[in-house]
Each structure stands twice: as structure tokens, then as C-alpha cells.
Amino acid sequence: MQPLNGTGVSAFFLKGFSGYPALEHLLFPLCSVMYLVTLLGNTAIVAVSMLDVHLHTPMYFFLGNLSTLYICYTSTFVPLMLVHLLSSWKTISFTGCAIQMCLSLSTGSTECLLLAIMAYDRYLAICQPLRYHVLMNHRLCVLLVGAAWVLCLLKSVTETVIAMRLPFCGHHVVSHFTCEILAVLKLTCGNTSVSEVFLLVGSILLLPVPLAFICLSYLLILATILRVPSAPGRRKAFSTCSAHLAVVLLFYSTIIFMYMKPKSKEAHISDEVFTVLYAMVTPMLNPIIYSLRNKEVKEATKKAWGRSWTSR
Asked: Which residues form the G-protein coupled receptors family 1 profile domain (predicted)?
């Protein structure tokens, strides 16, 4: 990709909350704390799943990848957003905007596929317990995760290149706190139909299709759990997938609320604030949900914490 497009634009101004200085000073500490909790919590999940041999299973391999993704996703926009909240100079270079757009699209898309893969893993563990370790072997785990990361990166690179090669005219003020692709496309004066088609196809493949797969997996899981004769057995079976189900509900409920609510002609600052919070809340709550709802994670964390203190 060339550093400049045909119109010679070299930078964009990220409007964000520039018209609300009091709100910026309120959001800075809030977003800083949320980002810090996200980094520490998800790093702890990755570390524990790698250090404890009891967690060297497909479920925690996928969880480690999900936590890594949340660290990458939030890091694509939060650090720069925090700088802009305290600065009046809210510009980003053309190349920087393209990189941010691509990485945000890629990590967001990969999350949809990872959640679907984790649902499939839970389906095999509960509905095919005797064949689980044969079907969900390490090679398949690496193949599924690798395919999700690579395919979503290729998709995002394609979407970014198509969008950023369009001619830009007039002002270069992006009405968003990041280089969100739809906000950037509003600044172009060329034909955006190709870019819009790519985005529509990608949205269909990565939102309703994985969601339908997740729903089907959990319907089969529920049917299997209901056939378990004992109540303790049903509780144990459900506890193995309750944390993942909570993350799925949190992720898709925020997306549905944001994109299915009636659109107003004028953008409201409350929508922008909610967009910031919903983009950060799922990554932040992921380690908390898995720590509270998963006995193995809690025990592994206590062991790791105990070893760190005894080593001192």
C-alpha cells in the first residue's frame, strides 16, 4: 500500500470526543483502568494456561488464544485513544490509520471464529466424550486456530487496501475515536460499492454464520445434558461450558444492541461513549468470567501465585 493515495492525504484527524473536554477527562481514568485490567487479566490467563500442565488441553489452548486476541484487539486502539483524550492534537498518519483499521478488523473477525471454535470444542467434549481426545487432537487445534487468524488477516488486509486506495476529498476529519472503516469510507468521493460488498459479505460470514453454529452446538449440548440421569452430573457438564456461554452472550448482545437499535439522523455522543465501553468490556471481563466460573483456572492461579511467593 502506498503511503499516500491519489488525493495526497497524509493524515487524518480523529474527532472522537474533541467537543467534550470534560467527558475526555472522565473517560481517561476509566478507560485506563479498564485497559490495565484487560492486559493483566488476559496475560494471567495466558501465563497460567501455559505454566500449569493440567491446563494443557484444547479448551485452555483456545482460551489462551482468545485472551491473546483480546490483548491485541484493545492494543490496536486504546493506547492512541488515551493519548488523544489528553491532547488537542488528535491526528494519525495515513499509514497508521490503515494499520489500525486492518488490525482492528482482523482481531474483531478472529474473535467471532474463535468463539465458534470453542463452542465446537465444548460440543465434542460433552456430546462425544469417549472420542473427544481423538477428534480434538493438538494438530486439529493448531489448524483451526491458525486458519482463523490467517483467513481473518487476509480478509482484513483486502478490505483495508480497497478502502484506503479510494480517493479522499474535502476534510479529513474521521467522526470516530479510531480509524473505523465505515467512518473512513464517509470521507471518500469515489465509488465505495466494492468496499461495501466486501464488508457485507464479511459481516454475514463472520456474525450470523458463527452465531448460528454456536446456537446449534449449544442446542445439542443442552439435549445431551438433559439426558444425564443425575443432577450433579448435569451441573458438572454445564459448568464446563458456562464461562464460554457467558462470553458469547456478552459479545453478541453488545453487538446486537449497537447495530440493531434504530439509527438517528444525528450521531449522539452517548453512542460514541457506549461504543468505547462495549469495545473494552468483553476483553476486560473475559478473565474475570473464566476465573469465577472455572474451578481449574482458580486452582491453577492459586498454585502459580503460591509458587511465586515461595520462590521469593
From this structure: 41-290
